Amino acid sequence: LISSPTSQGLHIIHIAAEMAPVAKVGGLGDVVSGLSKALQKRGHLVEIVIPKYDCMQYDHVRDLRALDVVVESYFDGQLFKNKIWVGIVEGLPVYLIEPQHPAKFFWRGQFYGERDDFKRFSYFSRAALELLLQAGKKPDIIHCHDWQTAFVAPLYWDIYTAKGLNSARICFTCHNFEYQGTTHASELASCGLDVSQLNRPDRMQDHSSHERVNPVKGAVVFSNIVTTVSPTYAQEVRTAEGGRGLHKTLNAYSKKFIGVLNGIDTDAWDPSTDSYLKVQFNFDDLLGKRENKADLRKHLKLSSADPMQPLVGCITRLVPQKGVHLIRHAIYRTMELGGQFVLLGSSPVEHIQREFEGIAKHFENHPQIRLILKYDEALSHSIYAASDMFIIPSVFEPCGLTQMIAMRYGAVPIARKTGGLNDSVFDVDDDTIPLQFRNGFTFLTPDEQSAGNALERAFSHYRKNIESWQQLVQRNMKIDFSWDSSASQYIELYEKSVARAKASKMA
Ligand code: ADP
């Protein structure tokens, strides 16, 4: 196996189900790559372990090769071989695990949504730790993410420290408490965890039933550091309404639980170098932005009659969390207000997908409205660059990246005040906020009237004084949404935890 080069800084290993751009479903993939790159830039040694999915974007993996050795890992009472691949993604060393298991866990044509997801990812969590053990890795931090790799925390303390993989502190980040991966308790045994020990109310037992276990709860209990992706969301999930059953656990462990706002990958999301764009542009040259708007209109066969007609963009997974009813309302309200609306989104929820297909069809040849119902990275870049405004009316939003990307591309956000949106979008008309921080339009109540009002205020600002709008756009484009400050916070958390471990060993 490949040994880790020595480094002065910390040795951090992420174990995750996603990594952008090779295996990305949503924000999790962006965070794993963005945070890792920022940590690496500061001299820390970062490695990443992900499953080797059949549906990965292999053209983004450099120097991909299979190692000669095979790692055997335990599952369902047997040992299974795993082929280990290594490669470089975005300059980061990555291990890809390919299980030689008859269920072909990562050979399904999709990342999630399989009936045996619990098995697939508990298997992967165990195989990842086995890889670290057999490779003789001595990381300072093992950082796992979401329910899919939450198993790493109890597996590490209950099984792997005794085997000799014992140098690390465990950090767990929950990117969305909506998804906790709960299942029948007996399933936990497959990856070697002790069900009778863990299916207890103070450990992994789910609040809903004595017979169900909750991997996210397990990771909260068993990790040294627990984070989520914005300070406001960290507060929200500690309440009965926001915590999805975990608020009591999160309050019990509040000392190690903190919200750190995600950054965005400012290399990947840079309008001055973005090769997906018709014309690159920056805050000094907003003409380039106009050209992108004209190009998108042409490409989507929207009316080009009025170059100043405001264009509202929306790029999202169409799931209830994102406020689909408010997105639908915003489409019609934008039309009434005389704007144009472009939605790029797709839904894993069949009735929502069908509903939006109906709306898309209705507006098929409409000069002002276009719905594109698929996942399309290239088109997403063009929409950010072309939009004057960008709407994110989420019911809840752990962090949200699209508001930050939108601002970097000169689209002014219209957002609901929740979670990470509340930590990054500040209303232009809110006198309690210092002028220099005001960057968009916000609303509090998740109903049509409130969303509509925010949209109207945005239109009225845009039309009243185009010069002040342009100043707002330029100010927003200069905001630092890079990982710099968030990475510093993570490093501080890591270092404190490592120092605490050292101190307790000496005592
Ligand atoms: P979530 O992780 O809940 O989906 P985030 O705002 O954290 O939401 O991250 C969404 C990311 O996925 C952004 O980078 C956004 O541009 C991208 N995205 C969402 N839907 C699409 C789509 N249909 N096509 C292309 N990119 C999309």
Strand order of the largest sheet: 3-4-5-2-1-6-7-10-11
| Strand residue percentage | 15-25%
CATH superfamily of the largest domain: Glycogen Phosphorylase B
**Strand tally, please?**
17
Mean pLDDT: 96
What structural class is derived from the secondary structure elements?
alpha/beta
Share of residues in helices? 25-40%
Task: Assign the CATH architecture of the largest domain.
Answer: 3-Layer(aba) Sandwich
**CATH third-tier fold name of the largest domain:** Rossmann fold
Low-confidence stretches: none
CATH class of the largest domain: Alpha Beta
What integer value in Å does the Rg equal? 23 Å
Bound molecules: adenosine-5'-diphosphate
Q: Helix count, per DSSP?
A: 17
Please, how many domains? 2
Terminal CA distance: 35 Å
Task: Categorize the overall geometry.
Answer: globular
Largest sheet: 9 strands, mixed
How do the helices and strands line up, and which of them pair or pack?
Elements: E1 11-15, H1 27-41, E2 45-51, E3 61-75, E4 78-89, E5 92-99, H2 117-134, E6 141-145, H3 146-150, H4 152-163, E7 169-174, E8 183-184, H5 195-198, E9 212-213, H6 215-222, E10 225-228, H7 231-236, H8 247-252, E11 257-259, H9 287-299, E12 311-317, H10 324-336, E13 340-346, H11 350-362, E14 369-372, H12 377-386, E15 389-392, H13 402-408, E16 412-416, H14 419-424, E17 441-443, H15 448-464, H16 466-478, H17 484-506
The structure holds adenosine-5'-diphosphate.
